[in-house]
Amino acid sequence: MRFISWNVNGLRAVCGKGFSDTFAALDADFFCLQETKMQAGQLDLKFPGYESYWNYAEKKGYSGTAIYTKHHPLNVSYGLPQDIIDAMPNDGWLDMNTEGRVITLEYNDFFVVTVYTPNSQDGLRRLDNRMTWDDAFRQYLMRLDAQKIVLVCGDMNVAHQEIDIKNPKTNHHNAGFTDEERQKFTDLLAAGFTDTFRYFHPFETDIYSWWSYRFRAREKNAGWRIDYWLCSNRLQPNLLSAQIHTDIFGSDHCPVAVEVKL
């Protein structure tokens, strides 16, 4: 099976930049999207042979996730479980489930989860909220993993290692490359998950999934690897390949892929 994840940074915008052709060419079993920036009814985008599931943010033109799949799920859920949210420190932050950030599809032998992780934002003004989110999301994935195999993808808004970012020293304390965010990602992997790209390419450098629109960053390949496919560790023997499609344009992110024998 082929799994694709892509932060499209506005699905309506990327549809004018060849999205349908890219979708067809990648021919995925699961095509997961983040930052769709849509509300229900704003775009009727269907593909033969696919079902689609959408989680919209309450705020217009913001966040949002979707999954296109060739395989009808047993169950679909949106957001994080309320009991996990209730157990987290909140400090007045809005409900985690109002921003359309998570979709989970359940199958006989596995779960597929897509996530658009909150950004800590300029000045790290949302870093504390981000830490809470990371803890809640990790607990959720561990709960799923206790039941069956998990494949989880998305824009996780963190470059884990120094080789995952072009300029680690100058970005050290910026959102997406703080010690706190990187440690939370380490904690997630330690909880039983594999970074599939690093599984196949443990030392490869200069391969990124996001580039700023400023300063001709993509032209210079001054990027960050912040988009991932993770899986339960016990799925490692079934992994066939992992790829970052740096040749595909249309967004400030590019698609990331994993192929798995299931």
- Number of β-strand runs: 14
Distance between the termini: 7 Å
**Can you give the helix content as a percent range?**
10-25%
Morphology: globular
Structural class: alpha+beta
- List the secondary-structure elements in sequence, H or E: EHHEEEEHEEHEHEHEHEEEE
Write down the overall mean pLDDT. 96
Count of individual helical segments? 7
Main sheet specs? 6 strands, mixed
Oligomer: single chain
Radius of gyration: 17 Å
Spans of at least 5 consecutive residues with low confidence = none
Strand content: 25-35%
Query: Strands across the major sheet, in which order?
Result: 3-4-2-1-14-13
Summarize the topology.
Blueprint: E1 2-7, H1 11-15, H2 19-26, E2 30-34, E3 51-55, E4 65-69, E5 75-78, H3 82-86, E6 102-106, E7 110-116, H4 127-145, E8 149-155, H5 179-190, E9 193-195, H6 196-200, E10 210-211, H7 217-220, E11 223-224, E12 227-232, E13 239-244, E14 256-260
Parallel strand pairs: 1-2, 7-8
Antiparallel strand pairs: 1-14, 2-4, 3-4, 5-6, 6-7, 8-12, 9-12, 10-11, 13-14
Helix pairs in contact: 4-5
Please give a quick description of this structure.
The chain has 262 residues and is an alpha+beta fold. The protein is 22% helix and 26% strand. It is built from seven helices and 14 strands.
